[in-house]
Amino acid sequence: MQGVIGFRKVWGVGVGKVVLTFSMSLDGFVAGPDISLENAMGVGGDRLHKWMFHGGPENAIDLGMARELLLKVGAVVLGRRTYDVGLQHWGDTPYPVPSFVVTHEKLDKLEMESAAFTFVNEGVAEALKQAQAAAAGKVIIVMGADVAQQMLKEKLADEVYIQLVPVLLGSGSRLFENFGAAPLELVCDRAVNSPHITHLKYKIPK
Amino acid sequence: MQGVIGFRKVWGVGVGKVVLTFSMSLDGFVAGPDISLENAMGVGGDRLHKWMFHGGPENAIDLGMARELLLKVGAVVLGRRTYDVGLQHWGDTPYPVPSFVVTHEKLDKLEMESAAFTFVNEGVAEALKQAQAAAAGKVIIVMGADVAQQMLKEKLADEVYIQLVPVLLGSGSRLFENFGAAPLELVCDRAVNSPHITHLKYKIPK
Q1: Separation between Cα atoms, residue A10 and residue A4, nearest integer Å
Q2: Cα–Cα distance between A168 and A24 in angstroms, integer?
Q3: Chain A residues in contact with B159 (beta carbon < 8 A)
Q4: How many helices (H) and strands (E) does chain B have?
Q5: What region does A54 belong to: left with phi over 0, alpha with psi -120 to 50, or beta?
Q6: Is B198's CB within 8 Å of A193's CB?
Q7: Per the CB < 8 Å rule, is A176 touching B27?
Q8: What is the pLDDT of residue A13?
Q9: Contact, A163 vs A199, CB < 8 A?
Q10: Across residues B112-130, what is the average pLDDT?
Q11: What is residue A134's predicted lDDT score, i.e. its pLDDT?
């Protein structure tokens, strides 16, 4: 039995979990309106990421959560708009791992300091396939509301991490729209409050 | 000093906190679409209250939270539609305390088993004034998304309790719309996960 369990574990390494991770306002927005190069998070949307920039011991929970995900990540799948507005901000790949951009444009692989951007023209499922090969069993993080919605719709997402920000933005881009057949049941297996936000973790039963 | 503190406490008793308490889907809906007598919570909206009807020890957190609020409540302010679709369901006032219905129609006070419904024609602020007099320092619970939004807009709400349900409903009535000037900052002072939902508590700074 030990041998079988061992084999299954090794075999299991080949398929990394697909994780959507978003900082979301209490009224459901993951970006403000009018996203542009100047306002990568939309107008007023920077508020959603403010929790990342607090220092000191009161930020220990938030840093711990961010580090936990950083240790798990093996690849990123992101949308073209997220890439366009994010690149100057990151100055690198968004995480230090291979990153796959879903786009209609044919672009050459772009080597950055930590890893490379690869541009995939065949859609979200193909980008995920390439990301899973690169991630070697580690987590694939999905960035960008459009790509995340397609992952939900095509039943490709395994987990959703929400950093729930105690603000009502009133307008912008919602994460949970166009996700396919409703209702969609999730299972919340963690809720941790920090002084700035609430960290929620959901599994998507398949 | 003791006397002063005592006086302030007694004086403080006169003004009960205004609490919005809603079971909300992760995508922000507090009811499904097409609310009617048959579907008081809208189509599919009953899912949001399912957590109240689980039995056994796994429900201890949820029951504890519900009881905490029940012990604090002194009056209710609710909208006319909530009253119309809720009455047959409750068979009484929604909580065992004086309940004030905001409506344009002139209706006589209606005595129920636990307390009375009073119909207020002069809007949300006047209904709240009457509720605060009746509550004698205890909490005023606000029911109905429309009335809740007006309370937010007119800066009358003190706290928001959200029972966050791990489901995406896709459509229905959103709580956080038409709440006035955005962004509106809140402070989350509690996040407690039960096996069924996440209990969130927010304060609204004034």
Answers
A1: 10
A2: 10
A3: none
A4: 5, 13
A5: beta
A6: no
A7: yes
A8: 55
A9: yes
A10: 97
A11: 96
CA distance A201 to A161: 5
How far away is chain B from the Cα of A38, in angstroms, using its nearest Cα? Answer: 19
Average pLDDT, chain A: 92
Grouping H, G, I as helix, E, B as strand and the rest as coil, residue A24 is strand
Residues of B in contact with A167 (CB under 8 A): 183-186
| pLDDT reading at A180 higher than 70 | yes
Say whether pTM exceeds 0.90: yes
Q: Considering CB atoms only, which of A28, A177, A202 is closest to B166?
A: A202
Under the banding of pLDDT at 50, 70 and 90, the label for residue B55 is: confident
- Chain mean position to CA B178: 17
B96 exposure class (CB count in 10 Å sphere: 0-12, 13-18, 19+):
middle
Residue in chain A nearest B201 by alpha carbon: A166
B26 CB near a chain A CB, below 8 Å? Answer: yes
